[in-house]
Design goal:
Shape: globular
CATH topology of the domain at 8-144 and 196-210: Trna Endonuclease, Chain: A, domain 1
CATH class of the domain at 8-144 and 196-210: Alpha Beta
Order of helices and strands: EEHEEEEEHEEEEEHH
Number of helices: 4
Strand order of the largest sheet: 3-6-7-8-9-10
Structural class: alpha+beta
Number of strands: 12
Length: 219
Amino acid sequence: MKIKAIQTQYRGYKFRSRLEARWAVFFDALGVRWDYETEGYMLPSGPYLPDFYLPEIADGVWIEVKSDAPLAKNSKEQKMLEELVIETQKDGMIVRGVPLEGMSNDDPHYYDPLGAEDGSAYWMHIYHEPIDGYRDSECGADGPYLFCVCPQCFKVGIEFDGRGARVCRSNCSRKDSPVWDNALSRKHPDKAYSWFHPKILNAAKKARSARFEHGETPK
């Protein structure tokens, strides 16, 4: 018998599961704007309704939330997300389980919500432009991609290995502000690893501890 997830209300939305609602809390705690099930798409493999869209992360990122069960390689979920990425020319990401649960402060590969053999913390399907018109648009899988922050202005992004220096690139307007200091970033100043920044960890803690019973709203 398949156990059905409990629909959960949060911020006026009725989420299909409590897990989805926890990700919405996570985004809110980070100050990241999100849209929930805003648009359905007819893809080559059939109709598809993505869970979240984060319009202010990079050029826009689709987020598909899955339970803590590992996804099979080349699964239907993965295929549908690839097709969505190609059709919309926006990045996409599958996240599994509660935000950052079990993640190590020392090694991002320890956290493995997809159960991938390479330990990818997130599986990002990246849109590739056609090269000189000789091939069709395609998707590539890469990881780990982690939520992180710019070390100068603390803007939230999703970058490979949680490299905060990539969030604003060289365009950060607060170059005179204090840089977040930690041993790993001092060792790799050009990368500014920040997947374990307090802003990220506190948002994950809030998402995991959120209660939705009796109309409660997470504080």
